Amino acid sequence: MSEVAIQRDVLSDNDAAAAANRARFRAAGTYVLNLMSGPGSGKTTLLERTAERLRGRVRLGVIVGDIQTRRDADRIGQHGVPVHQVNTGGGCHLDARMVAAALDVMDPADFDVLIVENVGNLVCPAEFDLGEHDKAMILSVTEGADKPAKYPLMFHESRLMILGKVDLLPYVDFDPDAAVADARALNPALAVLRLSSKTGEGLDAWADWLLQRMRQFRDGR
Amino acid sequence: MHEVAVAQRIVEVLVDTAGRHGGGCVRIARLDLGALTCVDPESLTFAFDVGCRGTCAEGCRLDITRLPLVLRCFACGDEGPRDGPVAPCPRCRAIGGEVRQGRELRLTTLELDEASRAEGVA
Predict the structure, then answer these.
(1) CB within 8 Å: A152 and B6
(2) DSSP bridge pairs for A116
(3) Closest approach of A90 to chain B, Cα-based (Å)
(4) From the list A7, A121, A185, which residue is nearest B1 (CB)?
């Protein structure tokens, strides 16, 4: 028997593919956001509202990851936004190679902002760098305020946390202050927006955040 | 939740490494697994055993070292292991800290059995 020291990160291939994606986005001048959350928290609905808000202001494109079906792509596409659906065929997250393949269809040069809607899953997507500039996540108030403590990684990795479905706050036992406090314990710089795609609360702030990050990216920050 | 994908990637690394070291069998693979990763050791071991079948790593043992979460307190700078990411600092009781250890998913060393090559097992 002989021992071989390798010291190799298991996800190093993904990280290399993500770096290649990032270089491609930079060359194209495209700001890319990786939007993550558990299933059913409102990613697709938010992107429908986002498409309406940003129409005529920036060139928005969306890459949607799901295990199966192209229902999300069809919904978002109805709002006049170029969408590409990626089916992972059982995979619980998108990885950098899947995004690279999607870029053969969605040329980054055609977009100012590209949003990648990850597979609905509060756990695994946080582990995989796609080459995005920022990660953002939704925690909807129906999911419970204990989620940051239970599933810390996504909160740790995100730049923005959207508290979603806040129109339902009167009907659920969700303590927004406790959720934000736990999330900021994991990530003190985490920005937080309260939002309801139903009533429109927070949608302007969300659009402003997105456009500001796009401009900061272009300014090299 | 993505243990199968991680296990497949580990097997690829083992097969590749064994090939570059003369083509023997891999008997033991050692993996550092941080507490903050989203990988369950039991599921990973199961997926790994299945994934090794029919390769030069068939029957390989996966030695997993769980690395505890280590935080450096944002408030007082105390650095040490914590039960969880929102556990209070043992020195100042503040919550929250920079992750110093816990994100690892890293193969460290492999034990290769060159003798198996002569026997034609590989």
Answers:
(1) no
(2) A34, A63
(3) 10
(4) A121
pLDDT tens-digit readout, A5-52: 999 999 999 999 999 999 999 999 999 999 999 999 999 999 999 999
What average pLDDT does chain A have?
95
Beta carbons of B96 and A184 less than 8 Å apart: yes
pTM of the entire structure? 0.90
A6 in Cβ contact with B108 (< 8 Å): yes
Which residues 6+ apart lie within 8 Å of A129 measured at CB?
A: A14, A15, A18, A96
Widest CA span in chain B? 61
- Crossing angle between the packed helical segments B3-20 and B41-52, to the nearest 10 degrees: 50
DSSP per-residue string spanning A12-30: HHHHHHHHHHHHHHHHHT-
Q: Would you call A137 helix, strand, or coil by DSSP? A: strand
List beta partners, residue A35. A117, A136
What is the three-class DSSP state of A169?
Answer: helix
CA distance B115 to chain A (A): 8
Question: What is this model's ipTM?
Answer: 0.82
Adjacency order of strands within the sheet including B97-101: B79-81, B70-73, B97-101
Contact yes or no for A69/A101 (Cβ under 8 A) = no
Q: Given an 8 Å threshold on Cβ–Cβ distance, is A11 in contact with B95?
A: no
The CA distance from A98 to A87, in Å, is 9
Measured between alpha carbons, how far is A38 from A121 in angstroms, rounded to an integer?
A: 4
- Residue A112 CB partners (closer than 8 Å, separation 6+): A29, A30, A31, A58, A59, A60, A214
